[in-house]
Records
---
Amino acid sequence: MYTCGPTVYNYAHIGNFRAFLFEDLLKRWLKHRGFKVLHVMNLTDVDDKTIKGSQKQGSSLKRFTEYYANAFFEDAATLNIEPANHYPRATEHIAEMAALIEELMDKGYAYRGEDGSIYYAINKFKAYGRLSKIRVAQLKTGARVKVDEYAKEEAQDFALWKAWTPEDGNVFWETKLGKGRPGWHIECSAMSMKYLGKTFDIHCGGVDNIFPHHENEIAQSEAATGKTFANYWLHNEHLLVEGKRMAKRYGNYYTLRDLIDKNCDPRAIRFLLLSTHYRQQFNFTFEALEAAKSGIERIENLLHRLHDVSDIDSHEKAEELIERARNQFGNAMDDDLNTNVALASVFDFVREVNNLIDANTLSIEEARKVQAFFAEFDAVFGILGEAKKETLTQEAQELVAKREEARKAKDWKTADELRQQLKAMGFVIEDTAQGVRWRRDKN
Ligand SMILES: [Zn+2]
């Protein structure tokens, strides 16, 4: 599985992370279903944007991109994204790219322009436009584009190797192709095939990668190898923020760090970004983020309650519910990662198990099976993590015991004071028909 990684010229924004989270979910689900996944994600550390950024900051390209690469790894860990097996950097694979470009020239798919750069001749590759469904017949042949990003309407021969110009400063490599640097698209062809072979299974990215980036990757790779490049392409839709396309000028542009600075819970961010089907446009709002947070709390509260069910005979009602939840969840995820339906079944299940506990009809053995289901769920969604390990601190335990004594002695005032003390420590105490319960106060 190859997923287009970040261009390390700034902090990744939540739209970027929607893609990385969808890919993480896909990988986790495939693993859950027993597939072995070899995951490669590139880091684009040389392109128009990184060069401009490093020059603006007055630092070397390496130092500049290293900083943002590290920031990306930190952010990915914050969002509990499982690391890829390989994170190849473009600057470390110049030789592979140059070799691929040479091969394309030998086979007649690439040519040198009068500016010294090497371009891909899209009219030579008959399948050009197959992925993005653009009609190449209408294009003027020989029109060329040197920048890395352009629109469908501008489909034309694109740069594989960019001859050095003074604007590139000290960013260049001396290769057989001449002094210069690679275009953006060639790096993904060269690095994916290096680590995954000429044909691999899955290639992912955002919808904005379909054209020109992925169209060009196919053209480069298949022209060189004569083989299918990737068997399956999966693209996630755009993210809107508060109903609008995210843009600095709308004031709705957020990096992950911006949200963490606003005290947003990273688990809620992860959950929210995964909760809408990846091929649907998704509208990020702070209200929805709150709802995601309480969704996680609903599951966690149930998990806490499972610890203190009383020892009764099994009623087998739970077994049936677990079986149904597991099937519904699995079928929905198998259906192109239909998270909307999968999560609806999980929350139905939460409600039903709560009902069983309320009625004191859940056995300890059944509670363990419910826990096992949520462990499976969380291996895929990755949002519960630490909550499962939560226990009362020693000090809190003593206060709970003291409060019980006070209640037995009908000393309501002391009992209430102790409850307040526990609340200040972050533990909410509830008296129920089945005894005292506690949960973490999330606020
Ligand atoms: Zn790519």
---
Amino acid sequence: MIHGLTQAAESLLTFAAELARRHPRRVTAVLAALMLGGTGATFAVANLAPDAADLPVHTVVESVQTLPLQEQIDALQTRTLRLYRSDVTRSTDTADNLLKRLGVFDPQAAAFLRTDMQVQQTLLGRVGRNVTVEVDAHQALVGLTARWSPDDDGMFKRLSVLKTADGFQSKLETLPLAASSRLAGGVIASSLFAATDEARIPDSIAIQLAEIFSGDIDFHRALRRGDHFSVVYETLEGDGEPLRAGRVLSAEFVNAGKAYQAMWFQEPAGTATAATHSLTKGGYYTLAGESLHRAYLASPLEFSRVTSGFAMRFHPILQTWRAHTGVDYGATTGTPVRVVGDGVVEFAGVQNGYGNVIMVRHNNSDTTVYAHLSRINVQRGAHVTQGQHIGAVGATGWATGPHLHFEFRINGVFRDPLTIVRQSETVPVAAAARPLFNKASAEVRAQLTAAATMLSGNTQ
Ligand SMILES: [Zn+2]
């Protein structure tokens, strides 16, 4: 490779290095594009319909033509006159510090942003709006664009500030979002969220991933370094920029060397069996067609940044209490506690070491216990449904710090909750929906295989 470098390529790389030194953030994409161009690489693009029930997967393979290097250099030289930078707005943003953070030094532009009503109302002081600026070689503002999707109505807002012959002008538009799907993946180094942040996967997708596989993988305790995943999810974009995340369509998670796969599937009307309740709902299935919906959730705490990998740093007060037969989940006071299965509240109140405690009966043999709560939302005798928030984490009773003490009892005897979840029966796809499911799952399988190949290629 080194020996094969032509003079043009050398100067291109020197130029790229110089660009990278000056503008480290922006240049990654430029370099990536150059590398692709230089090797005549192929792209694979997968598209999914929003409704996974009729998953058409189109794979487009294109060969990329390599441009002569001198042309690439010329193009780059021209482009350096227009630099783009992006950041996310903060609640404390003023016109001046927003521009400063974006590397814009332009008093005229700052004065405009300070006084323009649309900028005042939609951008400054708003949290989490993506802003992109275009600047010239002297860091003066050429244009500014912000896009956001405030409501779940399929639309997004676009605010643009443009430099014109008569000074700056702003424009606010409402435009339709475009549905698309995104394939992403990552390797666990420290936590699931660290890996999804790295892959720029939204939190809502990370949480869905953890919930989908929660019956098989204990995301609170059993993630290992080197575990990896691929995921295809819906995304709603404005001008090609992802502004909202939708549903996970398919995913693979490899935990401790074992691969688990899941796909979203909705049985068409008329084929669903009474037992699946999926006439309108749809759900997640293994690629073999077993529903991932279980009688019990794997965890009484929803997976979140707060609860993930939150290690217990304290021990219950008494040795005897410490020998108790329950599972302790460390979490901050106020974290919602959900009931793991449908049932009836048998007890809701205060009891010795348990503090504020809720006991739920699920059937003749099974009960669950939620202790040390800071808040109780239900009363004795109430019917509760799986996932319902029945209380909140606290430190009442014999607890030295906030945590949830959770017990699963069968005929009064404590059992490991995860074992119970894994043993609970699953419902397969209805026979009538089988042909459609098999077709969809074959496509998902091929896609996940391609994803794994692409992702392992990227990390080499
Ligand atoms: Zn406990």
---
Amino acid sequence: MGHARTFWTAWQRARDAGGALVMRMEDLDPDRSRTVYAEAALDDLRWLGIRWHEGPDRGGPFAPYVQSKRRSVYLDAWHKLLAGGFLFPCKCSRKDLEAALTAPHESSSRRSADQRARKAEALDDEPVYPGTCRHREGHAPQLRGPTGVDLESPEGANWRFRVPDGESVEFKDLNLGPQRFVTGEDFGDFVVWRRDGVPSYQLACVADDAAMGITEVVRGADLLKSTARQILLYRALGLRIPQWFHCHLVVDHNGRRLAKRHDALSLHALRQRGLTPMKILSADLPMDTIAHR
Ligand SMILES: [Zn+2]
């Protein structure tokens, strides 16, 4: 529901501006991505009456529109960032990061530490990286000389973007107004390529938005901080920065984000219960009310 309303806003804005709406399937996370989910998402959005001009099902000038088929685009961006001295390899495990960031009395099982780390990622509220691998010998900014890593490929380490200290990243959001984040405080060196071989959301999103000629990005306000991170990537890659329109998050009566729920408020469930697209898209917030009508 939350994602559907955001995409609906994107559709309206593209229509009003005489632009094209682009549907891109972001399916890089092997744990969460299944073809059947992708098909179902497209089907739900079509049912809502939203039509996109370019996408996995329609093609377009910048195909493919499925991230799992665009690896070369991300590798190219990774190489450029590496050559520019913006990256360093990080060998910290989740456990290392957890140990560096949590107070001693918060000791707990490894499993729950993993869960907390995952939760932090999901909320875009990951702790500021403590800088453990930042200045490791042999990992100087330009990465010249023996580094112990294969510089032809990002495999085998988490690659982090070297975030400047104490720099203000500002942008004007078309919906929420002026935004300001301070590097090293609001966020630290962030991952652009994961140890398991998957490019991060930040890198893939920037590389694709630039390659696909995206002029305005419409997404949820939970990604404001990611936008600040991505602006650093745009600058490092010498790419034109798009405009941003962050939507208010849709929450239920308990303040929980609808996008994080997979229950009676899923689009599919509401559809099964006979609600019309108009009712779903025009309902007042919070959205729990429409589920009980
Ligand atoms: Zn590290």
